[in-house]
Design goal:
3-stranded mixed β-sheet; Rossmann fold; 14 strands; 24% strand; alpha/beta; 35% helix
């Protein structure tokens, strides 16, 4: 029956039920979530709880995957920022010249709240790109970027490479378009319990990808050492750091961040 419905009913109409459900849920949940324990740095509202997010598939627990596992307080009930978006934004504010220097920035698969802030910055030439999302400025494949060499001072690309069939080619493309002395913030889910990334071309079905990678649209599960090595081999100088530890426990708790999530800041020499 579900297969038959998918064939006959256009996707935009099938998605209407989810939009209606979200609309009916939004205001009651917003009101009942208001409190003082948590703060969203994007909308400025305070809450006693955020929405949970992530998955609890066995492989995510077994491999200790950071960036995909279930997180009780994750999504802001008002602006829908999530923990990884908030962490990236805090790092960009504190550790880069994104808010002070005249930079040309490429943001791939842009997070809505970060994009909203950066698109209004007078010091930035800000370009968004994605393979299929309609709202971006440029539609392109990260494995074949339609930009000249050495044109961007900075690239932001969060939780994309785990979806890409040839991530090494994508990394080389990112390196190519970054200017010398430029940088890229390249975040992915990381499995803390493994030393070698898991990647198997025979894993193709949704069920198998969930079993092996923890998500049906992922094509690999990164180990931290291997991920850093792949970025380094593409040409980047990689600074992998546990930024939540630097922020401190109170800031991590206040912003509902994931304490184990590392930042992968990649510089082009």
């Amino acid at each position: 029956m579900k297969t038959w419905a998918k064939q006959l009913i256009p996707e935009r109409y099938r998605l209407l039920r989810y939009e209606l459900s979200e609309w009916l849920r939004y205001y009651p949940e917003l009101i009942f979530s208001i409190g003082s324990r948590l703060e969203c740095l994007f909308c400025g509202w305070h809450f006693r709880r955020f929405r949970p997010a992530g998955f609890d598939y066995p492989v995510l627990t077994e491999k200790q995957v950071v960036g995909g596992s279930y997180h009780l307080d994750d999504v802001c009930p008002r602006c829908f920022s999530n923990s990884r978006e908030r962490l990236a934004f805090l790092y960009l504010q504190a550790k880069t010249g994104l808010f002070t220097e005249p930079l040309t920035v490429l943001h791939i698969a842009p997070e809505p709240n970060i994009a909203r802030v950066l698109s209004t910055r007078p010091n930035l030439t800000y370009i968004t790109a994605d393979l299929s999302v309609p709202e971006v400025m440029t539609h392109c494949d990260i494995m074949n970027l339609p930009f000249a060499d050495d044109v961007f001072d900075a690239v932001i690309c969060n939780h994309v490479l785990e979806h890409v069939s040839d991530d090494r080619l994508a990394m080389k493309e990112l390196y190519r378009v970054v200017k010398p002395r430029g940088w890229a913030l390249l975040q992915v889910p990381i499995a803390l319990a493994i030393a070698e990334s898991v990647e198997d071309a025979s894993v193709m079905t949704d069920t198998d990808r969930i079993r092996v990678y923890g998500q049906n649209d992922h094509v690999r599960l990164y180990a931290r050492p291997d991920y850093v090595d792949r970025l380094t081999r593409s040409g980047f100088s990689v600074n992998a750091s546990n930024y939540p530890a630097e922020l401190g426990k109170s800031t991590v708790m206040r912003n509902a961040l994931v304490p184990e999530e590392d930042i992968f800041f990649c510089a082009k020499p």
